[in-house]
From TrEMBL:
Pfam families: Cytochrome_C7
Transmembrane feature ranges: none
This protein's name: Cytochrome c7-like domain-containing protein
Cytochrome c7-like domain location: 52-119
Entries under InterPro entries matching the protein: Cyt_c7-like (IPR029467), Multihaem_cyt_sf (IPR036280), Nanowire_3heme (IPR026352)
Biological source species: hydrothermal vent metagenome
Length: 153
């Protein structure tokens, strides 16, 4: 009888410990998701070329940049604004506009030398769609940006 009670007690403790660790992992995921949403999440641009990725996480969380440093002087804080702006392109970036404001080779890597850091192309875009990380553009027409890329678990 004592062995049975001990076994039940041990199983109860294991269940509680497992529940607490699962709760902690879920809580950590929720906090990370909230941090991503608070900091704008990632954006995949599909115009003027398919596809360019921008990571708010890399800029805000890792580098410590503040929203106001880029918004509203360099970028409008409005979903789809970049894709509706017909002046966006490599010519403007090379003239210190948009991303080129910082990515000029002096402040950060140049937009003319490290293309693949941002340009994921059609293959990269298709990989994200296939993985379910973003919705295809056809399914996201009300918002031309693919925002807040889901975190892979």
């Amino acid at each position: 009888m004592k062995k049975l009670l001990f076994l039940l007690f041990a199983c109860s403790i294991l269940i509680v410990i497992t529940g607490v660790s699962v709760y902690a992992e879920d809580l950590a995921d929720i906090k990370a998701d909230l941090a991503d949403m608070t900091n704008g999440g990632d954006i995949v641009y599909t115009k003027p070329v398919k596809a360019v990725i921008f990571s708010h996480k890399a800029h805000v969380l890792k580098l410590g940049l503040q929203c106001g440093w880029c918004h509203d002087k360099t970028f409008q804080m409005e979903a789809g604004a970049m894709e509706r702006d017909h002046t966006v392109g490599m010519a403007s970036l090379c003239n210190d506009k948009y991303c080129g404001t910082c990515h000029n080779g002096d402040i950060s890597f140049s937009t003319t030398t490290q293309c693949a850091r941002c340009h994921i192309g059609v293959k990269g875009y298709n990989r994200l769609v296939k993985a379910g990380t973003i919705a295809p553009v056809e399914k996201a027409q009300e918002n031309p940006l693919e925002t807040n890329i889901k975190k892979s678990k």
